[in-house]
């Protein structure tokens, strides 16, 4: 397995979740090593909640899971892009398809 750099953000690595068919960016989250292992083992996205200080599986509350189609590291090996099949209609906890729905003026 590729060695990723979890040191820059105190054990965390930023993760962009992208719809594998449309290319739409769905959300930005963070993973620690355990979340990445669980994601690879289960085929569903697991993240680390900085506010709750614990792991969470995307969809555990909403039922809108992310089925992983591919995981890609950036050139510095300190962030990830995860291509997913989003189940349900929303990725954002606010009920929007994507967390990136607010356009700055």
What does this structure look like?
- This protein is mainly β and 105 residues long.
- It has 1 helix and 6 strands, in the order E-E-H-E-E-E-E.
- The chain has one helix at 33-42, and strands spanning 13-19, 25-31, 46-49, 54-57, 66-73, 80-86.
- A hairpin with a 5-residue loop joins strand 1 and strand 2.
- The radius of gyration is 13 Å and the shape is globular.
Task: Write a concise synopsis of the structure shown.
With 105 residues, the protein is mainly beta.
Task: Spell out the key features of this protein.
mainly beta; Ubiquitin-like (UB roll); single chain; 6 strands; globular; 4-stranded mixed beta sheet; 105 residues; two-stranded antiparallel ribbon
Number of strands: 6
Low-pLDDT windows of residues: none
Helix count, DSSP H or I runs of 4 or more residues:
1
Query: What is the percent of helical residues?
Result: under 10%
Q: In what order do the strands lie side by side in the largest sheet?
A: 2-1-6-5
What is the CATH class designation? Alpha Beta
- CATH T-level topology: Ubiquitin-like (UB roll)
Topology at a glance:
Layout: E1 13-19, E2 25-31, H1 33-42, E3 46-49, E4 54-57, E5 66-73, E6 80-86
Parallel strand pairs: 1-6
Antiparallel strand pairs: 1-2, 3-4, 5-6
């Amino acid at each position: 397995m590729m060695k990723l750099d979890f040191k820059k953000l105190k054990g965390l690595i930023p993760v962009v979740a992208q719809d594998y068919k449309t290319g739409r960016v769905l959300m930005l989250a963070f993973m620690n090593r355990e979340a990445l292992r669980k994601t690879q083992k289960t085929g569903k996205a697991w993240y680390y909640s900085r506010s709750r200080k614990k792991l969470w599986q995307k969809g555990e509350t909403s039922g809108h899971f992310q089925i992983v189609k591919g995981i890609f590291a950036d050139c510095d090996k300190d962030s990830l892009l995860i291509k997913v099949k989003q189940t349900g209609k929303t990725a954002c906890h606010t009920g929007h398809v994507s967390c990136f729905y607010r356009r700055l003026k």
